Amino acid sequence: MSQFRALAAVLRGGRWVDPGRSCSSGAAPGHSAVAGSSSYVEEMYFAWLEDHKNVHESWDAFFRNIQDSSPSGEVGEIRPSALLQGRVQSHSPGMAQKVVEDHLAVHTLIRAYQIRGHHVAQLDPLGILDADLDSFVPSDLITTIDKLGFYNLDESDLDMSFQLPPTTFIGGADNTLPLKEIIRRLETSYCGHIGVEYMFINNVDQCQWIRQKFETPGIMQFTDAEKRTLLARLIRSTRFEDFLARKWSSEKRFGLEGCEVLIPALKTMIDKSSAAGIDSVIMGMPHRGRLNVLANVIRKDLDQIFCQFDPKLEPADEGSGDVKYHLGMYHERINRETDKNITLSLMANPSHLEAVDPVVQGKTKAEQFYRGDTQGKKVMSILIHGDAAFAGQGVVYETFHLSELPSYTTHGTIHVVVNNQIGFTTDPRVARSSPYPTDVARVVNAPIFHVNADDPEAVMYVCRVAAEWRATFNKDVVIDLVCYRRFGHNEMDEPMFTQPLMYKQICRQEQVLKKYSNRLIAEGVVTLQDFEEEVSKYDKICEEAYTSSKDGKILHIRHWLDSPWPDFFTAEGEPKSMSGVSTGLHEEVLQHISQIASSVPLEGFHIHPGVSRILRGRADLVKNRQMDWALGEYMAFGSLLKDGIHVRLSGQDVERGTFSHRHHVLHDQELDKLICVPMNHLWADQAPYTVCNSSLSEYGVLGFELGFAMASPNALILWEAQFGDFNNTAQCIIDQFISPGQAKWVRNNGIVLLLPHGMEGMGPEHSSARPERFLQMSKDDPDHFPEFSGDFEVQQLYECNWIVVNCSTPANYCHVLRRQILLPFRKPLIIFTPKSLLRHPDARSSFDDLAEGTTFKRLIPDEGPASQNPAQVKRVIFCTGKVYYELARERKRQKLERDIAIIRLEQISPFPFDLVRAEAERYGNAELVWCQEEHKNMGYCDYVRPRFLTVVANQKPIWYVGRDPAAAPATGNKSTHLNELKRFMDTAFNLNAFQGKDL
């Protein structure tokens, strides 16, 4: 019946809408909307014969009229299509057919503009390029009179009035319009300085909402006061860049010239969002325009910005700092348009374009979480992008992919693409395969608003609509700000080398401020004097700030913090305490956590038999006051939750655990979606525990969790790689944010990376977490034995850039996680976690190892027979991680417990110089050996060797035992793997192997 009702609606203005129809023509799939009209009527007629109620009342009247006017029995013999072909002489010949075809044609025409009108919108301010990279005009858009023929219409139909469908708002209060007016209004709505992409959205209400915002006649109106505000903001944006250009003409600043409208655009979005209840906005952006955003959106003091250009400026804080156009800012102020408090945060980020996107989303999610903002009504994010990066950087897709996931959604982000129509020197026609740089946003049904940046009012309107969309639907939205770059990639670059035609036009292009001010003066909104006074006023502000910036300013990077923790540090930014850390636990706490961890806290919950066996196994361990790796993790998380510390564990399959050891989320085997998280049933007033399987992403998800960890120091945020090797694809976040974050931006961060690691014959992609990379970026000096006046461990941790550990016992794993929170500062923690040790019978800890007064062991000494007579020990093997258990087993097999001591480095970086020296002196007569299961050019060897030599003051060598150098991290052949293991085990316990041999 849908086809019959559709035609009835066409002819009589019925309100029926088929929400499932997605064909671009508006017709049923496989049919022409016009040519198929006769067959529709034929089908409708047969339906009417069955039951008159099957069709709309208008068609019922139509068929009754023909039946009543025809000789008895004649109508039943006539094919219904003949009714539209004039074969029934009692009805006007051809009239019905013409009415149906013309109305269908007009409705199809309207739909064509809604779908493809943006392709012919006037988007390029320069007038030389097509934003969609294609100058072809779609054949179904009426750009010339002769194209009316596409719809079987002609010039004579232009004055004919047509009933408008309910899927358009171009009529305003009118239900019918002449064809020429329909076309004019469609051109105005869809083909001017705004191009709207939204018809791919599969939600009728959302499509109707957008149509109403852009089709309603006269809806894009601004008051004179709003226009004056827009002009004032445009003056600030433009004159700020002009001032920098005058004062520092030879400095890189990545100015905003050519897209000065970005500043009023952002302020409009913030104003509109503030009015809707938002009081915190977190932003991320590339370097272009950052200083202008800091000055005129975040409202950072201008003298603080200007002093950054002083080449003699000396830093007052620790760390290396960063260039000014990478720095961020956090500022609380009153929004003048709404008189409401608002917090604005611009995240610091490197030149790795778009890398900041998931970080912003993570921080936004964290703030929403801690404030109980479950719908994103108080906290939101805005991301500014470049066109080439938006299309080219894969992390953009990864970030969009997180936008609708329950544990990652920020309930809508406004994306602003500063579309320079060029990427550095690369023409967009060879930089992307998609028509628009924004096409990636279509994967999440985000509406895309293309707008000509030289039309400030069009830009402001689009920004209003974007803010309203986000507030209404809590979904992402994209603004494609089509502009140009007045200078090169930076102010020192020469763009004429590669884009001569574009830059000849840019040289002739009138500045948008001049065009808009002239327009408002012509309209009588402002006078020339008003305009000049506003310009002079802001120029004076800049000059005064410039003078102030020279008054003995020094570089305080802390003034540029984007995530301050005011209650965590002292006013000077120092830790409130530097005392030692006890990470032990009360016995009753251990027992209580163990009980919950080995049971199901919900009655009547049906669990899998395999999970039942795991829980029984835990219970058996608890009876003997022992714990395995999973239970040690439970102890750490549970005890922190008791103390009010939020714990969040994220990554691929972390709920169960890649190796089926964790099972933090239990699934009822009989009821779908019924789950139980025992960790959230530990204590009545505990902090929440969040464990969430992520999308199949490392780059995006690690960036997200890093951002989440920035929001509060009182949370343990962990990201677990499915296998440690998979951190490869998150290397940008590790290299650019985690390792140097404090040095560049004075940003403490306690993110924890759990990286399963171990050479177990699983091949080159499932063995190594690449510890050599993390150790290479550790900043402790291999040639200097550190001296500290206070607690060596805490002081050394305070000086490092991150902590790298490879725990070999569940208790030590628990301790290091607890230490991460109990330290008076925050450092990233890299943990190489085990695989086979998860169930290794020797990898067990006693509850006594977690008792009160116990702490994390940076080094675990030998506690066997060798330690009882150290002077007689011939060799000391230092190692880390899983290989200890293989060494211990081989030593026992060869009965060398008294001759060889095995010592475990649990904390590799910062290197435990003090403890290693103590052990080396204890076994003063023994050879020193470093043994690792990784290949010699990988793993820990290159890191530990020079530090061992520093410990022993180069008085004796440190020998290497392990696999030979290789290109791949592991072999894919099990037999080869076992032969390699046997070979280096034989070497490790051959007491004659190193005598007289200088490695």
From TrEMBL:
- A GO term, aspect molecular function: oxoglutarate dehydrogenase (succinyl-transferring) activity
Q: What is its EC number?
A: 1.2.4.2
Q: Which GO terms describe its biological process?
A: glycolytic process; tricarboxylic acid cycle
Q: Which cofactor does it need?
A: thiamine diphosphate; Mg(2+)
Signal peptide from the UniProt entry: none
Alphabetized, the UniProt keywords read:
Calcium, Glycolysis, Isopeptide bond, Magnesium, Metal-binding, Mitochondrion, Nucleus, Oxidoreductase, Thiamine pyrophosphate, Transit peptide, Ubl conjugation
Subcellular localization, as worded in the UniProt entry: Mitochondrion; Nucleus
Q: Got a GO cellular component term for this one?
A: nucleus
Primary location group: mitochondrion
- Pfam families in alphabetical order: 2-oxogl_dehyd_N, E1_dh, OxoGdeHyase_C, Transket_pyr
Q: Which family does it belong to?
A: Belongs to the alpha-ketoglutarate dehydrogenase family.
This one is known as 2-oxoglutarate dehydrogenase complex component E1
Native organism: Sander lucioperca
